[in-house]
## 1
Amino acid sequence: MSPMIKKIGADVGNDTLKITVENNKNSEGFDKYEVMNVICPGYQRRILGIENSQLVNLLDVTIFDLNNNKETNLGRYFVGGLAYKESRGDLIEKTSEDIKAESEYTLYLLLTGLAYALYEEKNPVKHENISLGTVLPIEEYFNDDLLNKFKNKLWNKTYKVKFNSKAFNDAEITMTFINTYIEAEGAAATYSYTFNFDGTYKKGMENVENEVHLGIDIGSITTEITVLENGEFNSKGLFGINIGTAYPLDKIAAELKMTRNIDITRHQLDYILRKGKKFTVNIDGQIVDLTDELQTLKEVHFNNFIKYLVNQINKELSTRGINTKFFNRVNMTGGGSILVIDNFKKEFKKGNVILAENPRYANAIGSLSVVMANEQQEDVAADEVLNS
């Protein structure tokens, strides 16, 4: 594979897009980028002076489809933090009813995030060839129509993202997807904590071929389950459950609205709780610290959530004939796992429960490892022919 091809992993999470771009100069082997998964129609904003926000919060873009020998304008959009701040009642957030593979906004968010990750101040106008690894929810992945529909939006396709904010120096990033590899959410996460990029086992995973591992990937709207048995996925143990941390976060937000008349979104609550921030609000002109109250609400609603989730996991595993007594290890990934790991350990007493390294980025890292693995296979195949 040409060194000019950018190798990228991407996870269009229900609340956040996570991107990993290969970078051998980084000790981890990749750079990480994150964009909030919200989008709205864009418009010409009135701006006085210079915008001092972080670039990730200035994603005002126009997207072009450059396929079929023509340039088609797909529209102007605010993406991420800018959409959150500047929408005019038309903010689009991911819901449990949305089908990721079919949604045009999945594509627009992904393209914007990739262009942002590829942007260079000294080289704002460029064309990049990309080998992309990305994911779909398990239930969508095993639907051939949805899988093909999503893949056809990317495979050998070319798009251009024009940045409209002056902070991006009139940037235009054109991207051609030379290769596109799609994996199931949860399965890609499993790759991230099982294998190094060179295909060797990570420390602590050397005995995976003689063990049974349960993978639990908790997102905001869905939870993806994988069972790795003797080093291979057990097809009966691959399934999704339609609940995630948005459920308890929405419950907390509703209670704060009812008891304190405080308007707050699940995105704000997730950030405060995940980062361990203080929760202070202005009530009748007084700054009130509600950090302890928020922690109490978290314990109540997240405990209820975990009890329900564990019940659903056990029920589904039993229905599918998976014996939970044989689990050697339970690996937890996904942004939601950070919030619930302690609750989960108390409730799920089957195997050693471990929070994986880089849990929020696990699917993006695993997707990048898939790109790496396929590149190595292509090189081996070429060597067999050209060196014979």
## 2
Amino acid sequence: MNLQLFLCLSLTLSIEVLGKKSRIIGGESADIEEFPFMISLRLVDNNRHICGGTILTERHILTAAHCLTGISNIHTALKVQAGSTYLSSNNATIYNVSCAYIHPLFTGKISLTSQMQHDIAIILLGQLINFNDVQNKVELPTEDVKHGSSAEFIGWGALFYPPRSLSDQLQKTPMSIITYVQCSRYIRYYLRKEQFCGFEDKGIGACMGDSGGPLVINGKIIGINSYVFPCALGLPDVYINVYSYLRFIRQIIARDQCS
């Protein structure tokens, strides 16, 4: 499976786009107790971190749909690591994956008319998470995203671009929610209302390893990292608007077994 997904936006915007496995650049070190809902999605065969994710319930993990594409037999190919600040920790808790629900309208591509739409998925775990100080659920948003808000993005993505390796320690960085008009100055194609842009400054942003990770405000998840223009080069990052998918999320959470 390609751990780095570069996507070109046709001739109109001929720069690289990094979807799969993007990293935080310009952030600072964080501790899992600050963000106990944060998990590492990994490949079973080599224990490699591929995406971030967020604990929704004792059995449900929220992530980006593109993190799961191209993986056959998800229940045997993937696992979830929770409860650790460090990717390399021997004290983390590992959970098996039973199945995953990818949004049925996920487009899986970027073009002028289809910009990785509905890039959201929920993983159902094989065991219940025992909530404590280092692994606990996130709160869902109660209102739509407000442009101009200041949020925080979390992940284990690479610390430099071009990416050489992931960050072993969890990272966090501020991220401002910008308007569609502001975003269109950088990204010259249409974003749907289920998507929004985050931008703080040049030298700050997501990159390889950060896809699927949460954008939060006061402990509530408002966005899922979908794709970036590699990496922290002065262009916005694109997020899935969690508020737009509350119905989908609640429908899947209501299922306690794979079907």
